[in-house]
Specification:
Strand order of the largest sheet of chain A: 6-7-8-3-9-10
Helix content of chain B: over 70%
Strand content of chain B: 5-15%
Order of helices and strands of chain B: HHEHEHHEHEHHHH
Strand order of the largest sheet of chain B: 2-3-1-4
CATH topology of chain A: Rossmann fold
Oligomer: heterodimer
CATH superfamily of chain A: P-loop containing nucleotide triphosphate hydrolases
Radius of gyration of chain A: 17 Å
Distance between the termini of chain B: 25 Å
CATH class of chain A: Alpha Beta
Number of strands of chain B: 4
Chain lengths: 231, 291
């Protein structure tokens, strides 16, 4: 790849392969994602969408190939620097991954606490984000007492509270009704407009086509089958 | 730090039973250790008092003459620093014996000659242990005119041997209880970690450093150790206060001393050791889990 043509690239993958035992989950993925892009990764279940995201947020290592995030080669990042790199990401999961015995406020504040922010800043910022996602009044509630849509809004709040430059969402609307799904996508779009690069992995192509404008990368059997711009 | 303390306290609250069991186990271990230390501290004082502050009697040979006394004193002074040295002639010794054994003085009157030797009663200027007195006595015994040196090596020596045996048993018991407390603490931290596995996973995903993840567990371990230490010592203090006055009165006529509670220095040392125990249990557990 030519660096001159990719000066705004924030994520670059070169011939990435991921193998689980003898099975190839990702095969020779080469991808270039520019800063501020809205990427929709589609494909059927088991196609490799989640694996791709897991590799990007460093939950797993690649078997072959290289990944550059904002110019940094992930293979050369020491384990002590991993947390600092992860702070550039905001993550949303299908199963929300909220801490059940912590309140909505505490779940969202965790990102800023981990980053060592001051308590006064944390209070202000968390309440500001919860206001935007409509969870301000339920800041004291525990996640199990909330509906699926509400829990995902908390998860989105947590993903964006640290002002990450990249938001990765793995099936964010997978367990939500259409109204809640729409709300979650609207929040992600909102943050995309503020300059964040957003990658959403979902098999719900219809919903996304009706909502977002961006690039669609279709994955099948661990390989990129098609890249198209959605208008 | 406040953040980690809050998190640790919240975890202790949410796992009350488990943490209570750990704190009780630590406190019982500390109690056993403290009981031994209390015994050793008091026993050491008794030994010191029985040894009368480094006193020794030097019995001289039959052919000793007073002309030799200045030279002998000089030789003894050369061995070690002497605070006090009193010459007791065999006549003075017999008179004193007669006075002390007033009822049996008739028997003493039948003696054809004085069987008692001339003697020197000495007190060392400074000494740290019974062993030091023993060493000093042996050096004096090597002087030609000295027949024998008495410094309580008979019964006191035997008592010390028993005391040392007891000390070794005490150390073994303390080590055993230390290991039990360590094992329980490590397991509590392990259970706490597994109950918060999702939380730890999420923390990693949001960019928390290993220090940020581990710190609440360490604070929890330190708190368990600290509270266990305080509780163990409190139980010992209450027990001591309840029984010490009566015990001192009944024992006073036999052992001529009062039983004292542990010194402040020892109390601080025990609490510090207990807190370290909590930390170390946590360290071992996390090292194994997060390797």
């Amino acid at each position: 790849m030519d660096d001159k043509n990719n000066k705004n690239s924030i994520i670059r993958l070169f011939n990435v392969c991921k193998r689980y035992g003898g099975k190839l989950a990702l095969k020779d993925i080469t991808l270039d994602i520019e800063q501020g892009e809205f990427i929709f990764i589609s494909g059927p279940s088991g196609a490799g969408k989640s694996t791709l995201l897991r590799i990007l947020y460093l939950a797993e290592n690649v078997s072959e190939g290289q990944i550059l995030i904002d110019g940094m080669n992930l293979a050369r990042i020491s384990s002590s620097k991993l947390p600092f790199l992860r702070r550039r990401f905001g993550m949303v999961f299908q199963d929300f991954k909220l801490i059940p015995n912590r309140t909505v406020y505490e779940n969202v504040a965790l990102v800023l606490e981990a980053a060592g922010e001051k308590p006064s800043y944390i209070r202000k910022k968390v309440m500001q984000v919860l206001r935007i996602t409509g969870m301000e009044k339920k800041y004291k509630a525990l996640p199990p007492t909330l509906s699926g849509g509400e829990q995902q809004r908390v998860a989105v709040s947590r993903a964006v509270v640290g002002d990450p430059c990249i938001i990765l969402a793995d099936e964010p609307t997978g367990s939500l009704d259409s109204k809640s799904a729409q709300a979650v996508l609207d929040f992600l779009m909102e943050y995309h407009k503020k300059g964040a690069t957003v990658l959403i992995a979902s098999h719900n192509l219809h919903l996304l086509e009706s909502t977002v404008r961006g690039k669609n990368i279709e994955i099948r059997d661990g390989m990129i089958k098609r890249t198209a711009t959605m208008l | 730090m406040t953040h980690f303390l809050k998190k640790a306290l919240a975890d202790i609250r949410s796992n009350r039973f488990l943490n209570l069991i750990t704190i009780i186990t630590i406190s019982l271990s500390i109690l056993v250790v403290s009981v031994f230390l209390l015994f050793f501290e008091n026993a050491s004082r008794v030994i010191e008092s029985w040894n009368q502050g480094g006193r020794a009697m030097i019995y001289l040979a039959k052919d000793f003459s007073l002309d030799y006394l200045p030279e002998l004193k000089a030789k003894i002074n050369a061995v070690g620093e002497i605070d006090e040295m009193i010459y007791i002639s065999k006549t003075q010794a017999l008179d004193k014996l007669k006075k002390n054994m007033a009822s049996q003085s008739t028997f003493l009157k039948t003696l054809k000659e004085n069987p008692l030797p001339d003697a020197l009663e000495i007190r060392m200027k400074s000494y740290n242990s019974f062993e030091e007195v023993q060493k000093f006595a042996q050096s004096i015994k090597a002087i030609e005119i000295v027949e024998d040196v008495e410094y309580g090596q008979g019964w006191l020596g035997r008592f010390l041997k028993i005391f040392n045996l007891f000390k070794i048993t005490g150390y073994a018991m303390c080590s055993l209880f230390f290991l039990i407390a360590l094992f329980i603490t490590a397991n509590t931290v392990r259970l706490a970690f597994y109950s918060r596995k999702l939380e730890v996973e999420i923390m990693r995903l949001v960019g928390a450093t290993e220090t940020f993840i581990k710190a609440p567990f360490y604070v929890e371990g330190l708190l368990q150790g600290f509270l266990g230490g305080i509780m163990g010592l409190a139980i010992l203090l209450i027990t001591y206060l309840m029984i010490s006055s009566g015990m001192t009165q009944s024992l006073a006529s036999y052992i001529y001393f009062d039983i004292r509670f542990l010194s402040i220095k020892m109390v601080i040392l025990i609490i510090a050791g207990s807190t370290f125990l909590g930390w170390f249990g946590c360290y071992l557990s996390l090292k194994q889990i997060l390797k």
